[in-house]
Amino acid sequence: MTKTKTKKSISILGCGWLGLPLAEALVNDGFTVKGSTTTTDKCETLLTKNIQPYVLSIDDEIDGNLDHFLQSEILFINVPFRKQKPFLNAYKTLVKVLEKSTIKHVIFISSTSVYSEINGEVTEDMDIPLNPAKKDLIVFENLFKNNPHFNTTIIRFAGLIGGTRNPGNFFKEDKIVQNALTPVNLIHLEDCIGIVKAIIKQQKWNTTYNAAASTHPTKANYYKLATEQMDKKPAKFIEELSSFKIVSNQKLIDELNYQFIYPDLIEGLKAFKN
């Protein structure tokens, strides 16, 4: 008699721009997926995509059936960051519940904005200054990374494009864009999903990855092309160079053997053509 293979299970906290298409991709890969939303209106959408819906809100506390939501093997956390102390308290509550749950692995979505602009390349393992304006985000990372009850991998995403985020819409015609010779650090939605899937498949836990495309065109060049491709007039770009950083993705490429779908940002603009 052949044994039925147990489905892997994942709970996705935040089914928005990234969380929802990720949930769909994992359902297609045979996962049992639980997805959270802050409104009951979205539950029907999740159900139609074979995602088990949970209404959860994170404010000064967590409202909803958190215990049942966390009956999975993996937790994916992708909730817009807020600095307020009540929000931090809610996350501390989440960690306490996590410690007693069946969750073994956590993927926490962070941002490359945690790095200071050092006028050079930033990597995950360099002894480089972190952005003091983002110290609260580091506190959130460490809540999970330093907890011995589960394994945590941090993904620091660069600026997000793809899906509903067309870079041609980022700057209006009357906008004056300063420091337009600085390099951009961006990543496409499809690569965000691909990287998460690679981490899960290869079980790359207890580490941190920068996630950005391999090329870094100037702000002026990239956004002018993106806007003109939409037959719109570009913003006014002040072509000067101020402080900047270039986010390295080399660790991710080396350890995951990940091949980007959109490694070249200029070439990737073709994906946004109507």
From TrEMBL:
Domain of life: Bacteria
Domain 6-phosphogluconate dehydrogenase NADP-binding: 10-81
InterPro entries, A to Z: 6PGDH_NADP-bd (IPR006115), NAD(P)-bd_dom_sf (IPR036291), NAD(P)-dependent_oxidoreduct (IPR051783)
Name of the protein: NAD(P)H-binding protein
